[in-house]
Amino acid sequence: MTTMHTRGDDTFTKHESQVRSYCRDWPALFDTAVGSRLTDVDGREYLDFFAGAGALNYGHNNPFLKSALLDYIERDGITHGLDMNTRAKGAFLSTFAEKILQPRGLDYVVQFPGPTGTNAVESALKLARKVTGREAIVNFTNAFHGMTLGSLSVTGNAMKRAGAGIPLVHSTPMPFDNYMGGATEDFAWFERVLNDEGSGLNKPAAVIVETVQGEGGVNVARAEWLRGLADLCKRQDMLLIVDDVQMGCGRTGDFFSFEEAGIVPDIVTLSKSIGGYGMPMALTLIRPELDVWEPGEHNGTFRGNNPAFVTAKAAIDLYWSDDKFSVATKAKGIAISEHFDELCERFDGISHRGRGMVQGLVFDDAPKANEVCAKAFERGLLAETSGPSGEVVKLLPALTITDVELNEGLSILSAAVEEVLG
User: Fold this and answer.
1) Hey, which pathway is this one from (predicted)?
2) What whole-number distance in Å separates Cα of residue 213 and Cα of residue 126?
3) DSSP states of 376-392 as a string?
């Protein structure tokens, strides 16, 4: 067996595609991870404020989830089951209904569309078109919904869209909340376009929205804006799809990011942390009357990841049986925001925004954000940039991070900001 001991090993440059990205920003050879810390082969530890792009809300190798997974594997529990009925799937569905949906007064059926977030988005778009008989989808500026063609068609990032290599059609971008400085906040413009036979806009099947745009730059939609959008969709007979792939599973504090606004979407997409342990899993939640799929009309070989059902159930049992976890998450989010307040008072050219434990530090001089992340990495902190120009340092720490670890990471980030701006 060949063992790699140095960061300079050329295995990756020799054998892996140029498309790799995170490894370029974090040139370490990572080996182990526990909670909010990763360790490389040289024994150096890194605090993780990235959490698998939001797929590790409960931290790396969470011991409770790991125990449930190991027990399941040890007893030869089914790993791959397509959409066959299994004990693991049934236990997850029951727990999800009893502890997540019912307490929130939500009535959804669950579709397993495949292993990733883009699978959930693709199924949501297809279903909306099937239900309404219409083609157009309204999306928003700076949105990110995935990398497959349907998801890309409702994604805003020009570089990612260009990778499709073909026209991305049947979608219409509209301004996200505050995109134009508040000039279009009441949706009157949108409704006029919908009602105007001369506008050139075909009647949309649905609107797809993120309540907080993570990849787009931690752009936070106000609760009243989301309510206005939901009301407009009802008046205009359009389905409302909320993409909660990155912002769901407690990232903003509540289990669903749309709870704060008091809206009930027609379709919800979930992935990333729904599997609990970082295992591939995605859900499409559908109002029962919209579940018009024919058997097998949308499927996928890996839609039945039974070990993920096990860890997903364990995560819900441990963290979502009451509101303590949600309250703690919101408190940590406030702590990050207050720390950013202090930074913004000390240095010119920065501001901040966020909700819960997705927080962004925004740099007027966009390249400075990347410099800060590079300096933070040198000090042992993983954080990434987001936004159309990479102008935002986006923090996605595990929701389970301790107060000591959170303060340690924020101190590292402050030192990096001081080095870059001071």
Assistant:
1) Amine and polyamine biosynthesis; ectoine biosynthesis; L-ectoine from L-aspartate 4-semialdehyde: step 1/3
2) 22
3) HHHTTEE-EEESTTS-E
In terms of pTM, does the model score above 0.85? yes
Q: Give the phi and the psi of residue 268 in degrees, each rounded to 5.
A: -130, 135
- DSSP string for residues in 84-153: ---HHHHHHHHHHIIIIIGGGT---EEE---SSHHHHHHHHHHHHHHHH----EEEETT----SSHHHHH
Neighbouring residues of 256: CB distance < 8 A, sequence distance ≥ 6: 104, 242, 244, 248, 268
Mean local confidence (pLDDT), 352-370 = 98
- CA–CA separation, 333 and 327 (whole Å): 10
d(CA 227, CA 73): 44
Distance CA 228, CA 233 (A): 9
Give the model confidence (pLDDT) of 150-207 as tens digits. 999 999 999 999 999 999 999 999 999 988 776 555 688 888 889 998 988 889 999 9
**Spans of all domains in the chain:** 14-51, 66-319
Element (H, E) at 220: strand 219-220
Query: Domain 66-319 belongs to what topology?
Result: Aspartate Aminotransferase; domain 2 (3.40.640)
**Which residue in this structure is represented by tokens 């505050």?**
178
CA distance 152 to 121: 10
In 3-state terms the chain splits into helix, strand, coil percentages (rounded to 5) of 40, 15, 45
